[in-house]
């Protein structure tokens, strides 16, 4: 039964059937072949969504959209430019730093691509950067939206594996900074080599002036992350705080968020949330059937025979996840694969939180790799470019992230050190 389910799902993927529909149809095939009552489908659809941490998903999506509409992202760009915009290639570095700040609230890479890219891709092109390079940089930097907490894929991993969301969030901070720093180093060297960005400091505000204009925007991630790690509220409650804060600042302080804009923002957020929740619900039925068929145990036995040590296992899993991420959307990959792979990883002595970070960072690469990289499509839409023009300039960015992934994979302390420090009490 399990083999036919997986084969059915892969066939539908090959026919370009939407991921959630493909998973759902494969699950229906499994229920039919297994002779189970159809009521099981309804029960498992409900059970997959009946999890309190999932409440954070729509609110973080809404918070990201509100930040874009309310002018908060504009102020973040101004501040980031005042910090790193003075060096050659500073505008490209500003793109990365802004994505890091924006990621600390939004939790979504696509929202980060649109919010930051709409400002900085045209700005980089005006300053002489090739448009394909600017779009590739934006797509790659926006990947930090799901690595730096709060992160929607981390929430999904936590829900799927009964892992602590808070521990995953704190473990993602240093890896996110590592990737952001590596991307900034690369674009600085690129600008130096190609003679770009010599005038990037034009129009840059002094640091103190930029801070005064942006301090309310910068306070937002401080409140969200500080509240989570300080025990003031849970990650789920933090998502609601983010929405309320974005509305208050965007509407009553910056005065850019009108009621008409609010309607469109709510509509986009509902559509994005519905897509993710539909994937999660169908993946819940799929996972239930695979567990009932004993697939996790069989997979664990097979992988333990295939890989004889932790180093080889991590290398093999990274290679497999990289390929999977190219073809399957990140949220779907997490909710389907995490419950299957985590028990095997634990057999090799890998800590669940560390494995969660590895999985999220690796699958996030799928957002910037063809043929189904959602960040690429978003960046292309903002830049007005066809996808094929981004492939060549994108390769170095992918290699930079892969290098960082290897460091994250084989140096557990990079992810777990801050987690252990925060949760030592």
Q: Main beta sheet, described?
A: none
Figure out the total of helices: 21
Indicate the structural class: mainly alpha
End-to-end distance: 47 Å
Low-confidence stretches: none
Range of strand content:
under 5%
- Please estimate the helix content: over 70%
* SSE string: HHHHHHHHHHHHHHHHHHHHH
Shape: globular
- Count of distinct strands: 0
Commentary on this structure:
The protein is mainly alpha-helical. It is built from 21 helices and no strands. Helix 6 runs parallel beside helix 12. The radius of gyration is 21 Å and the shape is globular. 52% of the residues are buried. The mean pLDDT is 85.
List keywords for this structure.
mainly alpha; single chain; 425 residues
Concise account of the structure shown:
By secondary structure, the chain is mainly α. It has helices at residues 2-14, 19-33, 39-49, 56-69, 72-84, 90-106, 109-126, 131-142, 152-161, 165-171, 173-194, 207-229, 235-253, 259-292, 295-306, 310-327, 330-347, 352-364, 374-383, 391-410, 412-422.
């Amino acid at each position: 039964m399990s083999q036919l389910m997986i084969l059915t799902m892969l066939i539908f993927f090959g026919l370009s059937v939407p991921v959630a529909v493909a998973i759902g149809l494969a699950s229906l095939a499994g229920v039919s072949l297994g002779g189970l009552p159809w009521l099981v489908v309804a029960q498992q659809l409900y059970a997959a969504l009946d999890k309190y941490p999932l409440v954070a998903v729509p609110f973080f999506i809404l918070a990201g959209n509100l930040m874009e509409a309310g002018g908060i992202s504009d102020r973040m760009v101004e501040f980031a430019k005042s910090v790193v915009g003075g060096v050659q290639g500073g505008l490209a570095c500003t793109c990365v730093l802004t994505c890091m700040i924006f990621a600390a609230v939004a939790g979504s890479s696509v929202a980060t691509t649109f919010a930051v890219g709409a400002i900085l891709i045209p700005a980089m092109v005006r300053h002489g950067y090739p448009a394909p390079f600017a779009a590739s940089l934006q797509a790659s930097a926006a990947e930090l939206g799901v690595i730096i907490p709060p992160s929607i894929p981390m929430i999904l991993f936590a829900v799927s594996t009964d892992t602590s969301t808070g521990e995953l969030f704190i473990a993602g901070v240093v890896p996110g900074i590592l990737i952001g720093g590596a991307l900034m180093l690369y674009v600085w060297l690129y600008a130096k080599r190609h003679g770009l960005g010599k005038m990037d400091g034009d129009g840059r505000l002094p640091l103190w002036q930029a801070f005064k204009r942006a301090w309310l925007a910068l306070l937002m991630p401080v409140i969200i992350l500080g509240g989570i790690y300080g025990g003031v509220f849970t990650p789920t409650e933090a998502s609601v705080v983010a929405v309320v804060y974005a509305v208050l600042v965007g509407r009553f302080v910056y005065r850019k968020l009108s009621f008409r804009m609010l309607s469109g923002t709510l509509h986009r957020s509902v559509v994005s949330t519905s897509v993710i929740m539909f994937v999660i619900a169908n993946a819940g039925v799929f996972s239930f059937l695979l567990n009932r068929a004993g697939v996790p145990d069989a997979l664990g036995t097979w992988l333990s025979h295939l890989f004889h040590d932790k180093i080889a296992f991590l290398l093999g899993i990274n290679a497999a996840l990289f390929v999977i991420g190219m073809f399957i959307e990140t949220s779907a990959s997490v909710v389907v694969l995490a419950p299957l792979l985590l028990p095997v990883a634990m057999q090799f002595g890998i800590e669940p939180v560390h494995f969660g970070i590895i999985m999220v960072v690796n699958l996030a690469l799928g957002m910037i790799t063809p043929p189904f990289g959602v960040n690429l499509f978003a960046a292309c839409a903002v830049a007005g470019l066809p996808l094929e023009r981004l492939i060549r300039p994108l390769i170095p960015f992918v290699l930079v992230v892969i290098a960082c992934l290897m460091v994250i994979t084989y140096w557990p302390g990079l992810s777990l050190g801050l987690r252990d420090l925060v949760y030592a009490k």
